[in-house]
Design brief:
Blueprint: E1 6-9, H1 19-34, E2 38-41, H2 53-66, E3 72-73, H3 89-101, E4 105-108, H4 139-148, E5 152-155, E6 161-166, E7 170-175, H5 176-180, E8 184-186, H6 194-204, E9 209-213, H7 220-229, E10 236-240, E11 243-244, H8 260-266, H9 269-279, H10 291-295, E12 308-309
Parallel strand pairs: 1-2, 1-9, 2-3, 9-10, 11-12
Antiparallel strand pairs: 4-5, 5-8, 6-7
Bound molecules: glutamic acid.
The site of glutamic acid has 8 residues, from loops.
Length: about 325
């Protein structure tokens, strides 16, 4: 008997969703619903400076407007709550303590960018490729520096390949030390980093399927290593294409014309779902349809692998 699918959508409530976020949300929802599984909505509000409850409420409202429901999580509760990361600090402390007990983390006294990394799960922010020089500090040097500055904490990754097969992209491999480096697990202000929190949460919530944007694919090897050292069972991964504007720019929360406020003013839920389903290869034309109609015909095989350009003529005369 196959295991029931447990998926999740895990947005950061730091702004209004745009078309790209919706695309990931729709695919996460379709994959779970097509398999008759369970979907959780978890708010990744780790960063108190950027996340707002008003955005979380708006996000849940926007998903509901589109016809995307969830079984556990935000506003609903469930067996694996709480479903807000800001309320799960104790779990991250335990995961961190487990890493510390095995000497898999070390304090990092470097300044600047890494302090922001808990809010930045995307490559290039707060990362050293290779080991940080702080890894080599002696106990006495650490103690001396700790008197002047509260350290951030990094994972001490091994010089080892981690490979997995992505449901969209196929085989993917990275050498942790070379391609990723010692990544942050806790900021100097005590806020736990995305990488640690997401693994602790997906593990504790028994999530066995992760669907998210391709910008997070390169986070997966280090997350798989965390699953391993924390003794958790990893999910399967589907990294879905990013949407870009016709000029090649990746859509972001700054693209107001394609955020949910603008989209809701201009189209019906069925028009929006139909258009996203067209981009996702699930129908040949951007014809209006409901999310549930799509769930009946959904197939991962039809999802394109690479970036998807959003035609400038939409919404409008497609
Ligand atoms: N919270 C992350 C984001 O909004 C996504 C985390 C994930 O799906 O693993 O970028």
């Amino acid at each position: 008997m196959s295991t029931a699918v447990r998926g999740r959508f895990a947005p950061s409530p730091s702004g209004r969703m745009h078309l790209g976020n919706l695309f990931s949300a729709l695919l996460a929802w379709l994959s779970v619903r097509a398999a008759g599984g369970t979907l959780a909505l978890r708010m990744e509000d780790l960063d108190p400076d950027r996340c707002r409850e008003a955005y979380a409420a708006q996000l849940a409202g926007d998903l509901a407007w589109l016809g995307l429901d969830w079984d556990e999580g935000y506003g609903k509760g469930g067996p694996h709550g709480p479903y807000r990361q800001s309320e799960r600090t104790g779990r991250y402390e335990s995961a961190f303590a487990a890493l510390e007990a095995r000497e898999l983390v070390y304090p990092c006294f470097c300044t600047r960018a890494e302090r922001l990394a808990a809010s930045a799960p995307h490559r290039g922010e707060g990362e050293h490729t290779g080991a940080c020089p702080c890894r080599e500090l002696s106990a006495a040097q650490r103690a001396a520096r700790a008197e002047r500055r509260r350290p951030a904490w990094r994972a001490a990754v091994p010089d080892r390949k981690v490979a997995f097969t992505d449901g969209v992209l196929g085989p993917y491999v990275e050498n942790l030390a070379r391609d990723c480096g010692d990544f942050l697990v806790r900021r100097s202000d005590g806020v736990y980093a995305y990488q640690l929190a997401v693994v602790a949460d997906d593990g504790a919530m028994a999530v066995n399927q992760v669907v998210r944007g391709q910008d997070l694919c390169s986070s997966t090897p280090r997350q798989l290593w965390l699953y391993e050292v924390l003794g958790l069972t990893p999910p399967s991964f589907y990294h879905v294409p990013l949407l870009t504007a016709p000029d090649g720019r990746r859509l972001s929360k700054r693209d107001r014309d394609l955020d949910m406020g603008a989209l809701r003013a201009r189209c019906t839920p069925e028009e929006l779902v139909g258009f996203l389903a067209f981009l996702a290869g699930q129908q040949n034309r951007p014809e209006p349809c409901s999310a549930w109609e799509l769930a009946a015909v959904f197939s991962w095989e039809k999802v394109p692998r690479g970036e998807i350009v959003v035609p400038s003529s939409w919404p409008g005369n497609l």
